[in-house]
Amino acid sequence: MTAIAVTVAGSDSSGGAGIQADLKTFSALGVYGASVITALTAQNTLGVQAIQSIPADFVRQQIDSVFSDLTVDAVKIGMLSEPSIIQAVAEELEKYAVTRIVLDPVMVAASGDRLVSPRAVDSLRLNLLPRALLVTPNLPEAAALLEENEALDEETMIAQGKRILSFGPQAVLVKGGHGSGEESADFLIERSGVTRFTARRLNSRNTHGTGCTLSSAIAAGLARNQSLKEAVGAAKTYLTAALAAADDLNIGHGTGPVSHFHALWK
Predict the structure, then answer these.
(1) Which domain holds residue 226?
(2) pLDDT in tens, 115-127
(3) Which residues are catalytic?
């Protein structure tokens, strides 16, 4: 059987993040990708110029079309800009008994542009976090979910991850890409314990879509029946290589994308 993953997220018109990054990642990792678009963005490497949310009822129709036909092995959730959309996604995924859900709580673009309404954060905590197998916040997102200051050390990262775990997901991956130091450390927090994943910190300006890419790579691993720890480790290795090759792409005039097909484009 062909492994199938679905991305439920916003569209990035410049192709570096959102559903475009997710589908590229699925393909690069040998997984068939389908999509449910929740928002359209006018966006490029310089920033987000405009956002148009998709009506919640049409989001429901997309989910029904995909899940009534395809045998879906894993779902990655990204940008959900409005509470009505979050509610629709939560109810539809419950209807189809989806269990392998990777939730990337996208709130702010790499450019600093806010992507979701403040009311959506509350809805995300209430309706989707309890349904997720894994939630993957970066440091600003973890702070926003908890309404706390951003973590400045690993001890605080772990503590914040444990507090997010209390919202109901089975696991939390607190990502340290926004931190400092020679190593970029991520912490997988489960009720059974904490696992530390590290990679050397790369000095690249082309980091557009890193969060989308990591979460969709984890979903791809889960779709291929990897364990959660295996999927996280493989995804971090993939993203590190995509970042290392990012400067070879020369896309746009701002924060460019990572190289999703670095293993193929020689």
Answers:
(1) 4-134+204-248
(2) 667 788 889 999 9
(3) 175, 207, 209-212
